[in-house]
Amino acid sequence: MRAYQHTQKSLLYTIFLVLLSLAFLCMYIDSENNILYIISFAFILFVIYWFSKMTVSVDSDYLKVHFWFRLFTKKFFLEDIESIKLVRNKWYHGWGIRFLYLPDFVTLYSVFWLDAVEIELTSWKKYRIGTDDAQGLEKVLKSGIS
What we know:
With 146 residues, the chain is of the alpha+beta class.
Protein backbone atom coordinates (compact mmCIF):
# COMPACT_ATOMS: atom_id res chain seq x y z
CA MET A 1 0.00 0.00 0.00
CA ARG A 2 1.35 3.40 -0.99
CA ALA A 3 1.22 6.10 1.69
CA TYR A 4 2.17 9.03 -0.57
CA GLN A 5 2.69 9.69 -4.27
CA HIS A 6 3.12 13.06 -5.89
CA THR A 7 4.02 13.83 -9.51
CA GLN A 8 5.13 17.28 -10.53
CA LYS A 9 5.71 18.77 -13.95
CA SER A 10 7.82 21.76 -14.88
CA LEU A 11 6.26 24.56 -16.92
CA LEU A 12 9.74 26.05 -17.40
CA TYR A 13 10.93 22.94 -19.23
CA THR A 14 7.87 23.03 -21.48
CA ILE A 15 8.46 26.68 -22.41
CA PHE A 16 12.15 25.97 -23.01
CA LEU A 17 11.22 22.98 -25.16
CA VAL A 18 8.96 25.08 -27.39
CA LEU A 19 11.58 27.82 -27.80
CA LEU A 20 14.29 25.29 -28.55
CA SER A 21 12.04 23.59 -31.10
CA LEU A 22 11.49 26.88 -32.91
CA ALA A 23 15.23 27.65 -32.90
CA PHE A 24 16.13 24.24 -34.32
CA LEU A 25 13.37 24.50 -36.91
CA CYS A 26 14.89 27.76 -38.16
CA MET A 27 18.34 26.16 -38.36
CA TYR A 28 16.96 23.05 -40.05
CA ILE A 29 15.35 25.04 -42.85
CA ASP A 30 18.60 26.82 -43.78
CA SER A 31 21.00 23.93 -43.22
CA GLU A 32 22.75 21.60 -45.65
CA ASN A 33 23.50 19.03 -42.89
CA ASN A 34 19.90 18.24 -42.06
CA ILE A 35 20.52 14.81 -40.54
CA LEU A 36 23.00 16.19 -37.98
CA TYR A 37 20.48 18.78 -36.83
CA ILE A 38 17.70 16.23 -36.62
CA ILE A 39 19.78 13.84 -34.49
CA SER A 40 21.04 16.56 -32.14
CA PHE A 41 17.59 18.10 -31.89
CA ALA A 42 16.01 14.73 -31.04
CA PHE A 43 18.63 14.08 -28.36
CA ILE A 44 18.17 17.49 -26.71
CA LEU A 45 14.38 17.14 -26.78
CA PHE A 46 14.63 13.72 -25.20
CA VAL A 47 16.86 14.92 -22.34
CA ILE A 48 14.72 17.99 -21.64
CA TYR A 49 11.54 15.96 -21.74
CA TRP A 50 13.08 13.31 -19.51
CA PHE A 51 13.70 15.75 -16.66
CA SER A 52 10.40 17.62 -17.03
CA LYS A 53 8.43 15.30 -14.74
CA MET A 54 9.39 13.84 -11.37
CA THR A 55 7.47 11.48 -9.09
CA VAL A 56 8.09 11.09 -5.38
CA SER A 57 6.46 8.17 -3.58
CA VAL A 58 6.60 6.79 -0.06
CA ASP A 59 5.42 3.33 0.89
CA SER A 60 5.89 1.27 4.04
CA ASP A 61 9.62 0.68 3.41
CA TYR A 62 10.98 3.17 0.85
CA LEU A 63 11.11 6.75 -0.28
CA LYS A 64 11.45 6.67 -4.08
CA VAL A 65 12.28 9.47 -6.49
CA HIS A 66 12.22 9.01 -10.24
CA PHE A 67 12.09 11.10 -13.36
CA TRP A 68 9.93 10.49 -16.44
CA PHE A 69 11.34 7.25 -17.85
CA ARG A 70 12.49 5.76 -14.51
CA LEU A 71 16.09 5.30 -15.62
CA PHE A 72 17.24 7.55 -12.79
CA THR A 73 15.40 6.10 -9.81
CA LYS A 74 16.67 6.62 -6.30
CA LYS A 75 15.37 4.55 -3.37
CA PHE A 76 15.92 5.34 0.28
CA PHE A 77 15.10 2.91 3.09
CA LEU A 78 12.93 4.75 5.59
CA GLU A 79 14.94 3.04 8.35
CA ASP A 80 18.11 4.74 7.06
CA ILE A 81 16.70 8.28 7.30
CA GLU A 82 18.22 10.01 10.31
CA SER A 83 16.68 13.50 9.97
CA ILE A 84 14.22 15.41 7.82
CA LYS A 85 13.91 19.18 7.41
CA LEU A 86 12.35 21.70 5.07
CA VAL A 87 14.84 23.81 3.09
CA ARG A 88 14.74 26.36 0.30
CA ASN A 89 17.11 25.99 -2.64
CA LYS A 90 18.68 28.92 -4.43
CA TRP A 91 17.59 29.53 -8.02
CA TYR A 92 21.12 28.82 -9.27
CA HIS A 93 21.17 25.30 -7.78
CA GLY A 94 19.36 24.25 -10.94
CA TRP A 95 17.04 21.40 -11.80
CA GLY A 96 17.47 17.74 -12.59
CA ILE A 97 20.06 15.79 -10.62
CA ARG A 98 22.73 18.04 -9.13
CA PHE A 99 25.69 17.41 -6.87
CA LEU A 100 26.09 20.50 -4.69
CA TYR A 101 28.49 21.62 -2.03
CA LEU A 102 26.61 23.77 0.49
CA PRO A 103 28.78 23.41 3.41
CA ASP A 104 28.20 19.64 3.04
CA PHE A 105 27.84 17.59 -0.10
CA VAL A 106 24.18 17.34 -1.08
CA THR A 107 22.54 15.58 -4.01
CA LEU A 108 19.55 17.50 -5.35
CA TYR A 109 16.62 15.96 -7.25
CA SER A 110 14.32 18.64 -8.63
CA VAL A 111 12.29 19.65 -11.67
CA PHE A 112 11.49 23.25 -10.84
CA TRP A 113 10.57 24.16 -7.30
CA LEU A 114 12.82 25.96 -4.84
CA ASP A 115 11.19 24.34 -1.82
CA ALA A 116 12.69 21.00 -0.86
CA VAL A 117 12.85 18.36 1.84
CA GLU A 118 16.38 17.55 2.95
CA ILE A 119 16.99 14.09 4.33
CA GLU A 120 20.12 12.96 6.09
CA LEU A 121 20.86 9.26 6.15
CA THR A 122 22.55 7.26 8.88
CA SER A 123 25.59 7.18 6.57
CA TRP A 124 25.67 11.02 6.87
CA LYS A 125 24.82 11.49 3.19
CA LYS A 126 22.39 14.32 2.46
CA TYR A 127 19.78 14.54 -0.27
CA ARG A 128 17.34 17.26 -1.25
CA ILE A 129 14.09 16.48 -2.98
CA GLY A 130 12.58 19.56 -4.61
CA THR A 131 8.80 19.59 -4.51
CA ASP A 132 5.77 21.83 -4.62
CA ASP A 133 4.36 19.83 -1.69
CA ALA A 134 7.22 20.10 0.80
CA GLN A 135 5.03 20.13 3.93
CA GLY A 136 3.05 17.07 2.77
CA LEU A 137 6.19 15.09 2.00
CA GLU A 138 7.82 16.09 5.28
CA LYS A 139 4.70 15.04 7.24
CA VAL A 140 4.54 11.62 5.55
CA LEU A 141 8.27 11.00 6.03
CA LYS A 142 8.24 12.00 9.70
CA SER A 143 5.29 9.69 10.37
CA GLY A 144 7.03 6.90 8.43
CA ILE A 145 10.32 7.00 10.33
CA SER A 146 8.95 7.48 13.83
